[in-house]
Amino acid sequence: MRQIETDICIIGAGSGGLSIAAGAVQMGARVVLIEGGEMGGDCLNAGCVPSKALIAAAKAAQAMRDGAQFGITPVEPQVDFAAVKDHVARVIETIAPVDSQERFEGLGVQVIRAWARFTGPDTVEAGGQSIKARRFVIATGSRPMVPPIPGAATVPVLTNETIFDLRDRPDHLLIIGGGPIGLEMAQAHRRLGCQVTVIEGASALGRDDPELAAVVLSNLRAEGVEILENAKVGALAGQEGDITVTLEDGRKLNGSHLLMAAGRKVHLDGLNLEAAGVRHDRKGVTVGPDLRSSNRRVYAVGDAAGGLQFTHVAGYHAGVVIRQIVLGLPAKATTRHIPWVTYTDPELAQVGLTEAEARKAHGDALTVLRQEFLHNDRAQTEGKTKGLLKVMVAGGRPVGVSIVGPQAGELIGLWAFAIASRAKISAIAGMVAPYPTLGEISKRAAGAYFSPKLFDNPMLKRFVRLVQRVMP
User: Fold this and answer.
1) Is residue 180 annotated as involved in ligand binding?
2) Is 94 annotated as a binding residue?
3) What is the spatial distance between Cα 392 and Cα 40, in angstroms, rounded to a whole number?
4) Domain containing residue 236
5) 182 annotated to bind ligand
6) Is 181 annotated as a binding residue?
7) Which residues does UniProt call coiled coil (predicted)?
8) Are 120 and 6 within one domain?
């Protein structure tokens, strides 16, 4: 067996692993990168990239139906579902070279395309080779979880790993799971001409502010997506083209295809973590704020670290780990400034505390600022006036922001920066936003924090009257 010694061994070539590999090798570290699946991980091949490409195609189809308000005769689009999937594939192929084995080998990374297995606290085997490293990073990501529902083993179940390969349009897509993935796929497929039913065992979009989530759910229902909440699945039956979902209350739902979007499972199978003395549970590797495991040589990032499951979190974790294992500097990860977005129409974005969380944490010291897109001039010109921005302020600083509306995912970036930098709300109020833009809604919300102090202050009014009398 060939022996390799290196400074850093990274297991997993998704967002987090690739970021660490590129950064470490370019700063002079010896790096081995091990990947048993596809380079680029879930995000490139079966997650963020293909889903957003599909959503873009669905948005183009919906625009043809929504022209009446602009004086344009609505038409029902003719959707070539196979051609839509060709568009999705082209987007993946365009981005893939950035994550390719060839690019990383060109940077100086030794890439091994095989599954890794720890054989000791400082050694792994992969592809018939033994790699001994000073530091290891587990960046294996997660996979869709198929719950142990009776019948799930025999019924053809789609997941995000397989649905983008489907070239024939489903007549009726059943989706188990009313979270971001389920609802993004529901709206996209509905707009592309499918009948869609979403089955959620609790509340759809349950992690988000319920007031804002209701705006998204209302819009999806208006477009024809059936969303069943508090509907627990009892059993599955059927074959491709004829699938039956039986709910625990006895109701039966029939469809042609079934998409499982009921959560994800961290991919640690086969790593033999016990041999390395790495503690873990069903949520992932057990790590501290520094992302180091119970084995001081081993770190975990992204989904493997057992926290928020977002591509940008993996990228953020990469920076935290690089500072430690490459530069020898202390660094810790936090989640208070991490945003997330559901890319429905309207989009739903969150950073920091929701209103309920902020009220629990700050009580009477909390101020909640509200601005509706209805009062934003750019939203009016675009005919996109559904939505709301809420800013939770404590001690003069934003501690959480919730947005539902057009381009919420872009708008949340400013607030993520503000929370990360501990900026005061006055910094946002003092910003000059170009007119007319959706971004003005953030400035107006921040300005509203000071309105009572300026316009409802009797002492200030008396002072202003005095100034007006004495000023030459």
Assistant:
1) yes
2) no
3) 36
4) 163-262
5) yes
6) yes
7) none
8) yes
240 is in an annotated binding site: no
Asked, for residue 60, whether it belongs to a domain, the answer is: no
Binding site annotation covers 179? yes
Q: Could you tell me if residue 343 is inside a domain? A: yes
Global confidence as pTM: 0.95
Q: What is the CATH number of the domain that holds 384?
A: 3.30.390.30
Residue 303 counted as an annotated binding residue: yes
The SS3 assignment for 384 reads: coil
17 annotated ligand binder: no
Q: Tell me how many domains the chain contains.
A: 3
Indicate whether 311 and 430 sit together in one domain.
no
- Give whole-number Cα distances, 78 to 16, 75, 88, 90, 222, in Å: 40, 9, 18, 21, 21
Q: Is 52 labelled a binding residue?
A: yes
178 is in an annotated binding site: yes
Binding residue per annotation — 199? no
Q: Which helix (H) or strand (E) holds 22?
A: helix 15-26
447 is in an annotated binding site: no
Task: Let me know whether 376 and 399 are in one domain.
Answer: yes
CATH code assigned at 250: 3.50.50.60
In the chain (472 residues long), the average pLDDT of successive 10-residue segments reads: 95 98 98 97 96 98 96 97 98 97 98 98 97 98 96 96 96 98 98 98 97 98 98 96 97 98 96 98 97 98 97 98 98 97 98 98 97 98 97 98 98 98 97 97 95 75 82 82
Provide CB contacts within 8 A for 468, sequence distance 6+. none
